[in-house]
Amino acid sequence: MKGSLTQSMSWLHTWCGLLLGWVLFAIFLTGTLAVFDKEISWWMQPELTDQGQSSAAAANVAQRWLMEHHADETNWNISLPTERSPDLGVSVGERRRGGSGGTHLDPLTGETVEARETIGGNFFFHFHYTLHMPRLLGIWVVGFAAMAMLVALISGIIIHKKIFKEFFTFRPAKGQRSWLDGHNASAVLLLPFHLMITYTGLAIFFLIYMPAAVDALYGGDRQAYFREAQPARAVAQAPLGAGRDSKPVQAQAAPLLPLSEIVTHAEAHYGAGMIGGLAVSNPGRANAQVTARPVLGNRIELTKGEGMVFNGVTGELIQAPEPSRTSQLTQRVMAGLHFAQFGGYPMRWLYFICGLVSCAMIATGLVLYTVKQRKQAKANAQFLRMVESLNVAVVAGLSLACVALLWSNRLLPAELANRQDWELRLFFGIWALSWLHARARKPLLAWREQLFAAAALAMALPLLDLMTTNAALDGIRLSVLAAVFAMGLLSGWTAWKIPAVVAARKSRQASLNHPVPGVSS
Questions:
Q1: What is the mean pLDDT of the segment spanning 254-281?
Q2: Contact 275, 248 (CB under 8 A)
Q3: DSSP states of 424-485 as a string?
Q4: H-helix or E-strand containing 105?
Q5: E runs forming strands in 172-322
Q6: For 349-385, how does the pLDDT look when each residue is reduced to its tens digit (9 = 90+)?
Q7: CA 184 – CA 168 distance, rounded (Å)
Q8: What's the gap between Cα 404 and its chain centre?
Q9: How many CB atoms lie within 10 A of CB 437?
């Protein structure tokens, strides 16, 4: 790494991008898909239907069902229909422990709906920040990759002194020059987005990466920090009239207020249609409480864990959400920026497109390395072959595995035991096979075949959906199918263009080796 600053930064940019580029592509691709995680989950459970029921009316339907089937439970959890997820779900048990399983209800009739088990779009969300590793280990690996991304971004800015001029320069069918132009243009176009999304991703887990400040202020008691940061949750979990040293008292029976009234009161604060769920403690008792939680995305500040606590018998407001302190507000705004928790669907589509362009930036950087190495006589052939196969498996193979996951959701029997595990097996199995295929085939053939396979599966998904389900194609499901079809067209176009790019490069190389007489180079 000796030489000028530019040479040192170039070395740093190359190796940070190469060694962590494969991980970063997986993080960015699954993060891009996770922008529409709820919509993907809705598509992957075709048994559910959008009945157009309001949140208040659906809350009463859920209340009647829970009173009939779980009147003796001390905790009810209700997931209300929202714009992004129009289903009604109920569960019992403590919410922070996941309850004892959930049940889907028809929002109009209250009848149970047997929806197929699926990992849903939530898989992409969790993979985005854990890589399907144990949670803490995955967070650390992703955090390390995010730091490498910041290093690559900053070193890239230093390398390209004429960065804005290069943004307007693109020379197609020029081999290495074209890959570099595409890499630079995509990087410069979304440089603010790349810096924002990487830094805010690190800020989300600041307590894990930098716990010293909180440990010093709260004497190592993390729960004390969370109790102070989220007082509404602490109030909701504490029984009425009970002191710290008092024993729990069995409250007298009292009718629970219709939950539609609680939803109406909460919507007066958050806005119509902005209540995503209810948590009811001690239903049917005088000390009943109802916590109304807003839909994530009603404002730029991430409101996860926030809620309004009401008396379940009288409807009196017990605890309203307090304004966030400056430090807490800063962290919540950063988290909201990362998760696109503002601006509705226009902002989500903008994040989705930016995510795809970011994937293209990382992919072109990985390919650019191999293109440059092929021109060097001292290049290690075995190492280059390994890099090329990993490029194919991570970029084309992961894309193929994601589409195959959607196919498995339709092809696996709905009543199959451990169905979620089978979806996971097929996803990782296809991904592993893509690497074996990339090792067995020549790089260019592997690229074309896997991209064409991903394109074919993506473009045929609407037909598969039509043949395997009788679900009504509402706006959400149509949007998912249209987006997958468009991505299939993009993959097919890329695979179709590969031979033309290679042919142009070979022709140009031949002309350099055998110049035409009388024509100066």
A1: 92
A2: no
A3: HHHHHHHHHHHHHHHHHS-HHHHHHHHHHHHHHHHHHHHHHHHHH------HHHHHHHHHHH
A4: strand 102-105
A5: 275-281, 289-294, 308-311, 317-319
A6: 999 999 999 998 899 888 888 878 777 766 678 888 9
A7: 10
A8: 18
A9: 20
Q: Is residue 455 within 8 Å of 497, Cβ to Cβ?
A: no
Type of residue found at 173: A
User: Token pair 């991703």 is at which residue?
Assistant: 201
By the 8 A CB rule, do 389 and 435 touch? yes
- CB contact at 8 A, 235 and 226: no
d(CA 502, CA 444): 9
Reference 319, options 281, 370, 273, 371; nearest CA is 281
317-319, strands of its sheet edge to edge? 112-113, 102-105, 88-92, 75-79, 275-281, 289-294, 308-311, 317-319
Residue with tokens 């730029």: 300
Tell me the β-bridge partners of 104.
89, 113
List the alpha helices (DSSP H) in 258-377.
259-270, 326-338, 344-374
Which backbone phi and psi does 275 adopt, to 5 degrees?
A: -105, 120
Assess contact for 370 and 395: CB atoms under 8 A. Answer: no
Q: Strands 275-281, 289-294: parallel, antiparallel or unpaired by DSSP?
A: antiparallel
Quote the tokens at residue 195: 């810096």
Estimate to the nearest angstrom the gap between the alpha carbon of 481 and the chain centroid. Answer: 18
Of the candidates 301, 295, 328, 98, the residue with the CA atom closest to the CA atom of residue 228: 328
Residue with tokens 């890329």: 494
pLDDT in tens, 30-58: 999 999 999 999 999 999 999 889 999 99
Are the CB atoms for 13 and 159 separated by under 8 Å?
yes
